[in-house]
Amino acid sequence: MKLEKEPEAPLQFLLAAESDFEEVVAMSEGIYGGLDYLPSRYHAWLREPQRTVVLAKRAGAVIGLQSVVIIDGGETALVEGLRVAPWERGKGVAGELQRFCAGLIKQQHPGVKVSRLTRDDPLGPKDFRKYRIVAKQVPTMPLNGVLW
Ligand SMILES: CC(C)(COP(=O)(O)OP(=O)(O)OC[C@H]1O[C@@H](n2cnc3c(N)ncnc32)[C@H](O)[C@@H]1OP(=O)(O)O)[C@@H](O)C(=O)NCCC(=O)NCCS
């Protein structure tokens, strides 16, 4: 008997709400070795006027989050908090979430010229086509760069 894989429910992107907090914390378990900063900032982030917090949901459940705050007088979008639930990783969810947020920010803040984020994972050729390094922290880490 051939077992057919159930088709996955489509991704939905929504603005985060206070009521999503428990699910956000649950899907963030283990991030940054238990030192995740997001639980202590989540509610404050939702109240920041220049910040947008977007959730990815599948079948109504939170499976991803990214936040973007507008700085530098409206010219820079600072991307923070990106995460995808462990069981949804490796399927391109982060990329879809990033593209959704970029489109939203373009609409809401047409003055934005650059998008900036910090990464501490090793970068490959694809990443260098997408970003350019503007600062790099070398001494103790393999790579901890700020990207435009
Ligand atoms: C990093 C993480 C969000 C990647 O999620 P994922 O859905 O498995 O991502 P994928 O491997 O499918 O990669 C898809 C896209 O995300 C991008 N991406 C992967 N890791 C990234 C990172 N750390 N920062 C920014 N973008 C990242 C890739 O460049 C790719 O983009 P593309 O579609 O434009 O090519 C996920 O592993 C995670 O939640 N890790 C724990 C939290 C964390 O380390 N967050 C990053 C903070 S810098």
UniProtKB/TrEMBL annotation:
<dbReference type="InterPro" id="IPR016181">
    <property type="entry name" value="Acyl_CoA_acyltransferase"/>
</dbReference>
<feature type="domain" description="N-acetyltransferase">
    <location>
        <begin position="11"/>
        <end position="144"/>
    </location>
</feature>
<keyword id="KW-0808">Transferase</keyword>
<keyword id="KW-0012">Acyltransferase</keyword>
<dbReference type="GO" id="GO:0016747">
    <property type="term" value="F:acyltransferase activity, transferring groups other than amino-acyl groups"/>
</dbReference>
<protein>
    <submittedName>
        <fullName>Probable N-acetyltransferase 16</fullName>
    </submittedName>
</protein>
<dbReference type="InterPro" id="IPR000182">
    <property type="entry name" value="GNAT_dom"/>
</dbReference>
<dbReference type="Pfam" id="PF00583">
    <property type="entry name" value="Acetyltransf_1"/>
</dbReference>
